[in-house]
């Protein structure tokens, strides 16, 4: 692919993203959404940011984390605490949450030296340990009772646009990273970290970098979540279900693709809404079943299905298929 | 003019001494062949120079600068790069991307400059027509060329070739040999190569360095080394010139 | 001093359980190079199965071991043939196998939750309430039995791998699967067998666990972590290495629980992991765990 083709494709995607964001931004005014729909969309945007951030680690550089809830919890509670105890304006608190999550990630640096499965198992441990420790740390998280934040209906309404901006920026960043030299290096590290070092790429540096970036975004989205919920508790923020959710969204949408997690988040949120109302006791099994089916039949999830469809159309119309399998 | 030198390079793995006091010199525009029976320490030597592992003691000096103990990616920045005995292409990247990512290691490299370099290198090794394909679709010889291209793409001054001709058919091996000669002649890169395929090593090397059980036992021109009784004995009486390494 | 002896005795008894857990994970990893993320789920399933047999049929848990082994073995073979086998070659150990088996774990959890609710369960037998004096400290009989059974399992496993045809084939495949096809070994059958034995051992470990600790459908992460730590520490080469590593892990855990505030005991598994990685990243027997 020549540089010009790449740039054109990037501009097309960028344009599409911008258009989508603009449409979504004026949607509430144009369609007069019910407050339920308005809020669900806010939550969706927050969720999308998180899913994209997880994918940077799990998909781009290949470090599958089953414990991302740890960073989510840290970010959210720091943001919540800043609001409660220091009465700082919410955006400042959100950035505080992002910073806290990033520092937490830096502390997890030794974990990054682990190869694939070892890293993943370690993250299970991180998630569990965090949940236990932070549930106990009552002075910080309020223990099992959690934290109640001042309710601000006006902020909750405007969160829609805050979250939209975040999601839009994350989507753009995902595309940009994936197509940049940074993204290429990450993919090389994912394929073979040692061989990458042998051609001059410092695996440690890039893994640290993407870990911190992922953490910052998770922390940011968690801060918004805290403002949205006005009540946060460790069981939810640090819970295993939350960690699973990140994994599932990326896998459904397409692990390693730039925008797959956006699709995955949408599908996931819809599935969960449906499940909550009809069969709440089946959600684990359904998530597990989905994971199994996707991994076996279409590892790139919805994005993979979409690409298959594209190739089928191209072949049916007589054109030669593209270069990538 | 010495480009790369090792002084007293030693590596111990627990009780095993893989390399013992190796003094080696590589000049500019020179191909140095490193040979020796299995277990002689050739791959260990490579790993040490390329930064994959750290020496127990000794020094590695590149162009007057001490590079001892630098990790692999920093060795590449300094100008030393290696290929692998068993090729390790990035399976999830195309042939072009494999070479491109290696050209990007200098953080200040402009993207277009890296692309140009990658394209040129692919052309050099003869893989230009396969740039959009994935490594899995290449033959072994193709993947070895890719490995070489990737290494060249980093812009090295010293290239370490680890049994690069092993396992490919004689026609391909001959083409590869010519390619290596061009690396030295056209690109001015010095090469250290280790090989079991004797004809290749003998015909390519300006000088040969012989290792046996971690110790250097001889060096000189190919003719000198072949005639050296110590070398012959090290190979258990097999004449090195007949390409019958164990 | 008496406390110290108490703790050491505790640790030795616990080590048996940990070794049995680790064998299952280690066998699958050693032969297929796959980290069985469903390991904790199978342990949990084994615990529930023996509990169920005890509740419904009055079957003594120790007698249920062959049954649970059989069921878990069958589960493993089905998982392998139906799922793991379909992974692309070279995906072993990669994200695909991790996610797949993680999905299986979730399904197992849900099934247990549906069948038995989320409440803690415990298996009480005559052995649970009796105790015996060992080296001056009072030891529950059930823990002693667990150690005995674990030791027997270790011996059986050793005999299987070293003295039988099948065992030799398993070890050969673990070393070099490609060469095995050249000498007529049905590698796929060995993979299925190994996976089955691995899950079978996990199921049995679940029975042992049930006789000592309470459990619920969410159980498993801590068991997975500890098994993993033992495998990393002990290596894949020898049964005795694993047994020794299990002992070390148990000792560290017992002392950690003594030293740490109570809320951290649930995090002990993870703390052990951190310790192992920091102190002995190459494992006791030097496998490459780190990049």
Give a summary of the structure in a few sentences.
The complex is a heterotrimer of chains A (325), B (246) and C (291). With 325 residues, chain A is mostly helical.
Tell me what the structure shows.
The complex is a heterotrimer of chains A (325), B (246) and C (291). Chain A has 16 helices and two strands. By secondary structure, chain A is mostly helical. Chain A has a two-stranded antiparallel ribbon with strand order 1-2. In chain A, helix 3 (69-86) packs across helix 4, helix 8 packs antiparallel against helix 11 and helix 13 (240-253) runs parallel beside helix 15. The model of chain A has no long low-confidence stretch (mean pLDDT 88). Chain B has 246 residues and is an alpha/beta fold. Chain B folds into two domains: 1-79 and 156-246, Rossmann fold (3-Layer(aba) Sandwich), CATH 3.40.50.300; 85-155, no CATH class. Helices cover 37% and strands 25% of the residues of chain B. Chain B contains nine helices and ten strands. Chain B has a six-stranded mixed β-sheet with strand order 6-7-8-3-9-10, sandwiched between helices. Chain B has a four-stranded antiparallel β-sheet with strand order 2-1-4-5, covered by helices on one side. In chain B, helix 3 (95-103) packs across helix 4, helix 3 packs parallel to helix 5 (140-153) and helix 4 runs antiparallel to helix 5 (140-153). Chain C has a domain at 20-219. Mean pLDDT of chain C is 85; it is low at 283-291. Classes of the chains: A mainly alpha (325), B alpha/beta (246), C mainly alpha (291). Chains in contact: A-B, A-C. At the A-B interface, helix 9 and helix 10 of A face helix 2, helix 3, helix 4 and helix 5 of B.
Number of E-type strands of chain A: 2
* C-alpha geometry of chain A: globular
Strand runs of chain C, count: 2
Which pair of protein chains has the largest interface, and what are the residue counts?
A-C, 47 and 47 residues
Bin the helical content of chain C: over 70%
Helical fraction of chain A: over 70%
Low-confidence parts of chain A lasting 5 or more residues at pLDDT below 50?
A: none
Question: What average pLDDT do the residues of chain C reach?
Answer: 85
> Quaternary status of these chains?
heterotrimer
**Per DSSP, what share of the residues of chain A sits in E-state strands of 2 or more residues?**
under 5%
User: pLDDT below 50 for ≥5 consecutive residues: which ranges of chain C?
Assistant: 283-291
Biggest β-sheet of chain A, characterized? 2 strands, antiparallel
Radius of gyration of chain C equals 19 Å
The main sheet of chain A orders its strands as 1-2
Number of helices of chain A: 16
